[in-house]
Every structure is written in structure tokens, then in C-alpha cells.
């Protein structure tokens, strides 16, 4: 069938709205009519070719929509079901079977290769196939053939125009707190970067009972927003060494948990240096392959600190997304405050506002 998609053609280039042919369903796919799709920093990283998905490509990996048709082998959803779309995983490897699909042995192939496992593409422009199945979805399009393992069924009546970011950015920030850190009540946490992932971590840290919530960002407007979301302290690295500021806030000790969401090596170093004895720093901010950071290792030894690389909040989307919806519906996890809606046709505005900090989580809506 014909679909309208926003095509990424070159690094930094504006999106091109094109009519493309969406293929027939593979047995493990279902066709989703998109209602909304979040914009994640990873989309921009891939457009700019920090990750190797070949261009031209249809990106987008925080889709939410309605199932129109299911492939032969699909069992978990039916036409008419509402779904949130998340990352893909094989379901067969040791890590998937251990409940850690974020560390699937086929993660890069399934989410970034731009092809189905059999090498075919779901999208064609009449001359050539385009990269598709990005995170099992490629949801910058009116319709997508989605891998069943990317799909989370959600209750009818829920507002799909809000739920897409639960599939990646919100899941990542909240999951890092709930699944990776598991902070005891009364803990201290510093969140470096208060975009959608960092803001979601701040919300989750409050649910988990953290007492000291420090937001670190270079944008004053973001720090103000972090306070409104419940941060107890804010740190502006332009106003002085953030490590020193965090030590001051914590009575000289440092924080038990630090989450690095920016992908900047220097910020990861600061996050590590901000830790208390036996603290944990989590890295969720994506950076280009080959990026390196150095750490102090002499005195660090006596601190016994831990570095955890965290993919997609250590979450199983089909378990965690419904839990986040439950918290949200009880008023305890207001992630909708992060969202700014844009019509799909304004996708370039959404990316611009995300890059310059004017929007925390743009969500494209399909009218
Ligand atoms: C990504 C970051 C790069 C590895 C896979 C997960 N996060 C999603 O945007
Ligand atoms: Zn993402």
C-alpha cells in the first residue's frame, strides 16, 4: 500500500516527505496506522550517521497507533488493538531468554540495519528499497510494518498521542532508576542532562523515594523545568565545577547514583567523579562508536564505584510500559508534562526545537 513517510537522505539534511510503497506483511509483522511518534535524540544521531543505518532511511522509534492487519504468525495483537512501539529483539538468544532484551545478541542488526532479518526492506520508492524496520518500526510514516517483538498492547481508550515516548526515551530514563539503580528510599541521585531521558529519571527517582534529586544541565530553562518536576537541587556547570557543586549539596560525600544522559565523554567523567563511595554511574547517552572516556583509577579503587552501560532502561517493554502507564494514570508519573505536540508535516521544526532545547520531547501527530 502507499504510505507517506519522512525520509532521511543525508546527515543534517531536512526530512523529505515522500510517498512510498509499504510491502505486504512478513509472518512476524503487523501493520500499524500511526497516531503519534516521539522524536528521540537517537533519530538525529542516525540521520547524522553516528550509527550506521544506511541512508535513505525512514527513522522513528517511539510510535503509537492502531493495528490494521497482522501477519500469519502474530499472536499477541489483533486488528483494532492500540499499541505502543519499542525496540526489537530476537527473543531466542540467552539474553532475551534471561529477560534482558536490551542486550539481545542481534540488537544492532534488528534495530539499526535498516532491513528485516532476511535482508528485505518494508519500504520502496519505486526505484530502490529504503532503510526500514528501524527499531522494528520506522514510525516516521503514516503506516509501518512492525516486528511483533517491538509491540506493546495497551488498553483501548488510552491517549495514543501521549504514549509513544514510553517506548524509548521515558522507558530508558525510568528504567535506569527502577531496574538498574533500584535506589533505597532516601538515596541521592544526580541526573546529568535533563532532556526527556533525564526528566523521566527524575520522575522515577521520586517514585522510588530518592530524597536528594540533583539536576545538572547547561540550559537555565531546563533546570527550571527540572525543579518544577521535583528536582531538589540544580547544578549549572557554567556556574562552576559541577563535581564541586554536587559535593557541596551532599555534605562532601557525593551521590549514590549518577545518570549520564548526554553522550558527552567529559560529562560521563564528571558523573563518575560525583559519586559517593560505592556509588553507581549509569550511562544511557548514546555516542558514536569509538568514543572514549578516561577515569581516575588510583583513588577510585578505594571508592569501589561501578559503571553500568544501560540499554533501554534494562526493561522488558511489554512488562514495563504497562507499569509506567499505571503509575501515570494514578498521577504519580506525569511524563506527559515533557511532551510538545507537532503535526507530522512539521517534523523539521520538531527536530530543531529538540536540538536547541526548546522542546523536551516532541511528539509528531498524524491528523
Ligand atoms: C539507543 C541508543 C543506542 C543503542 C540502542 C539504544 N537508545 C535509543 O534511542
Ligand atoms: Zn530512542
TrEMBL record:
Keywords: Metal-binding, Oxidoreductase, Zinc. Pfam families: ADH_N (PF08240), ADH_zinc_N (PF00107). Residues 8-364 form the Enoyl reductase (ER) domain. CDD domains: benzyl_alcohol_DH. It comes from the Bacteria. InterPro entries: ADH-like_C, ADH-like_N, ADH_Zn_CS, ER, GroES-like_sf, NAD(P)-bd_dom_sf. Its cofactor is Zn(2+). Belongs to the zinc-containing alcohol dehydrogenase family. This is NAD(P)-dependent alcohol dehydrogenase.
Amino acid at each position: 500500500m502507499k504510505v507517506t513517510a519522512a525520509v532521511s537522505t543525508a546527515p543534517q539534511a531536512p526530512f523529505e516527505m515522500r510517498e512510498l510503497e509499504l510491502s505486504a506483511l512478513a509472518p512476524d509483522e503487523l501493520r500499524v496506522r500511526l497516531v503519534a511518534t516521539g522524536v528521540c535524540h537517537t533519530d538525529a544521531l542516525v540521520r547524522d550517521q553516528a550509527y550506521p543505518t544506511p541512508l535513505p532511511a525512514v527513522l522513528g522509534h517511539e510510535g503509537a497507533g492502531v493495528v490494521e492487519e497482522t501477519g500469519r504468525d502474530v499472536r499477541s495483537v489483533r486488528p483494532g488493538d492500540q499499541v505502543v512501539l519499542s525496540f526489537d529483539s530476537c527473543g531466542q538468544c540467552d539474553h532475551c531468554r534471561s529477560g534482558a532484551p536490551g542486550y539481545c545478541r542481534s540488537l544492532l542488526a534488528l534495530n539499526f540495519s535498516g532491513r528485516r532479518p532476511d535482508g528485505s526492506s518494508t519500504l520502496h520508492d519505486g526505484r530502490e528499497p529504503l532503510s526500514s524496520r528501524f527499531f522494528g518500526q520506522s514510525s516516521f510514516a503514516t503506516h509501518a510494518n512492525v516486528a511483533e517483538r517491538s509491540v506493546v498492547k495497551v488498553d483501548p481508550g488510552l491517549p495514543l498521542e501521549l504514549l509513544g515516548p514510553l517506548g524509548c526515551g521515558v522507558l530508558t530514563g525510568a528504567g535506569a532508576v527502577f531496574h538498574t539503580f533500584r535506589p533505597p528510599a532516601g538515596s541521592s541521585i544526580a541526573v546529568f542532562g535533563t532532556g526527556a531521558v533525564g526528566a523521566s529519571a527524575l520522575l522515577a527517582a521520586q517514585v522510588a523515594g530518592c530524597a536528594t534529586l540533583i539536576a545538572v544541565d547547561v540550559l537555565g530553562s531546563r533546570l527550571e523545568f527540572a525543579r518544577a518536576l521535583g528536582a531538589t537541587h540544580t547544578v549549572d556547570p557554567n556556574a562552576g565545577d559541577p563535581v564541586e557543586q554536587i559535593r557541596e549539596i551532599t555534605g562532601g560525600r557525593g551521590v549514590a547514583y549518577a545518570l549520564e544522559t548526554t553522550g558527552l565523554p567529559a560529562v560521563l567523567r564528571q558523573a563518575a567523579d560525583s559519586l559517593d563511595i560505592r556509588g553507581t554511574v549509569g550511562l544511557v547517552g548514546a555516542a558514536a562508536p569509538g568514543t572514549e572516556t578516561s577515569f581516575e583509577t588510583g583513588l577510585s579503587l578505594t571508592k569501589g564505584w561501578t559503571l553500568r552501560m544501560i540499554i533501554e532502561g534494562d526493561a522488558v517493554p511489554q512488562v514495563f510500559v504497562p507499569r509506567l502507564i499505571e503509575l501515570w494514570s494514578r498521577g504519580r508519573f506525569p511524563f506527559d508534562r515533557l511532551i510538545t505536540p507537532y503535526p507530522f508535516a512539521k517534523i523539521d521544526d520538531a527536530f530543531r526545537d529538540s536540538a536547541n532545547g526548546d522542546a523536551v520531547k516532541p511528539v509528531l501527530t498524524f491528523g
